[in-house]
Amino acid sequence: MSNKFNFNFLSFLIADHSLRNRQKTFGLIITLMFSSSAIAETGLDDVIILQYQKQRQVRDRNLRRPLQNSRASGKNDGRIIDGSPVAEGKYPFLASLSEKISNSYTYGPAALSDETTYIPACGGALIAKNLVLTAGHCVPKADKIRLGVHSQLAADEGTETGVETFTVTKSVTHGDFDSWYLRYDFAVLVLDGNSTLEPIKWNTDPALKFNELTVIGWGVTEAGSRTGSDLPRETTVDYIQNQQCQGNYGRLVHEEMICAASPKTDACQGDSGGPLVIPDKCSKDKSKHVLVGVVSWGYGCAQEGYPGVYARISSVSSWLYETVCENASDGCPKWYGNSNATVNC
């Protein structure tokens, strides 16, 4: 490998690295530029790797990641950042994914000391009677799936009616899923039984126009917190063009992603895998929704200039259709019809 440093590529690195640690990256590259031994030992390819590792650190630290070693607070004030409580039964397709933990944890007013307990980790959406769509990075946390949940505490105590509990018999992660950069952050979970609840349709039209979107989940109350919400909450965020979103995230934003943000509100940790929806204007029932995205990642939560980033459903509609056809207990979705179907009336 040549030890010459490519200044054109240096310009690319600095332009591409638009997150807040840009100055650190610049310092790293400058150090390497003027250290012939470091360049000889590291090489330009490794400089690229180091630069992207720094992006990863910023990103990974602030993923809409599963909650770890935490339980819902038991208070009804937990929320998607600055969201509103969801009316019971409003989103019947909303799924809660829990991780199995072998330890003692404090959950609301009670200390749980069972050998095995479960903590809410991610969200998801029922897309067929026995299939839940979530984020690819949530798969390791999907030890138990619950549908029909409103209060996490009440569901755990067995006092909430209508709760359906399943285990995962199989997970199908998108073939292009990249756990490093969270590209194609999709996975379909096959349940060990059928839900009685109604699945949600997903958007199949890449040209579908939308402005306001709704995101739903049991995530934390504020960035950096490890306390999830007892009740699901929702908030409305505005669609942002990818080109504009790349202004802050650089080349971390790709065509299979959606950016959305509104002042002081956002999805956050624990909301990963949850649904991003719009009203279903094809339905006469105004309470119906269409799934357009999956909560994926972001820099912090509700930080000005850094939108939430979601996996874009329409970019994988054919894959999703084929996956449903192969794994759904009731076969291919009738509403879809064919690979060119659309919910854009």
Notable characteristics:
disordered N terminus; Thrombin, subunit H; 6 helices; alpha+beta; 17 strands; 345 residues; 6-stranded antiparallel beta barrel; 7-stranded antiparallel beta sheet
Mass-distribution shape? globular
Q: Could you tell me the number of beta strands? A: 17
Level-1 CATH class name of the largest domain: Mainly Beta
Q: Profile the largest sheet.
A: 7 strands, antiparallel
Helix content: 10-25%
Termini separation:
56 Å
What does the average pLDDT come to?
Answer: 76
Structural category is: alpha+beta
Number of domains: 2
Give the number of helices: 6
Which percent range describes the beta-strand content?
A: 25-35%
Please explain how this structure is put together.
The structure is a single chain. With 345 residues, the chain is an alpha+beta fold. It folds into two domains: 7-61; 84-327, Trypsin-like serine proteases (Thrombin, subunit H). It is 21% helix and 26% strand. The protein has six helices and 17 strands. A seven-stranded antiparallel β-sheet has the order 8-7-2-5-6-10-9, covered by helices on one side. It has a six-stranded antiparallel beta barrel with strand order 12-13-14-17-16-15.
Quick structural summary:
By secondary structure, the chain is an alpha+beta fold. The chain is built from 6 helices and 17 strands. Helix 2 packs antiparallel against helix 3 (36-61).
